[in-house]
Amino acid sequence: MKTETISRHDFFRLVGTSVGVILLSNSSMGCSNQSGGDPEPVDQNIDFTLRLSDQINENLRIKGGYIVANNIIIAQTKDGQFIAVSATCTCATQGTLLAYKPADNQFYCPQHLSRYDSAGKVIVGPATQPLVKYQTGTGKSADTLRIYL
């Protein structure tokens, strides 16, 4: 019986390829929708006001700043407009919080790299469902910001 041998170089190339395939397949499964159903229902009673002078909301006082409140990401665009969308990536089963990138005026998932425009529409997947877009407006005083559906 003859035993075949492979070179060290070929062995490590084979091992590296195998590990790469395993890691790639695991990372692409993280965004698959396991339930196959509709996205989570939206709470139709969202209506709250933020006081911009409160220290917890200080990032909203600068253009490009953002905060997360009540599972909603609220950002001030570089043009000075306020925008608000649901704060979790629609492809993430773990509920990964999104971040806001003011230079591109986009929301992105740091874990899955999905990107959404300022209206919550998917620009780059793996996400396929849009974010919920909320209305914003000044509250009863200039120091307040109202977020509602």
TrEMBL record:
Keywords: 2Fe-2S, Iron, Iron-sulfur, Metal-binding. GO terms for molecular function: 2 iron, 2 sulfur cluster binding; metal ion binding. Residues 47-145 form the Rieske domain. It comes from the Bacteria. Signal peptide: none annotated. Coiled coil: none annotated. This is Rieske (2Fe-2S) protein. It comes from Spirosoma validum. The lineage of its organism: Bacteria, Pseudomonadati, Bacteroidota, Cytophagia, Cytophagales.
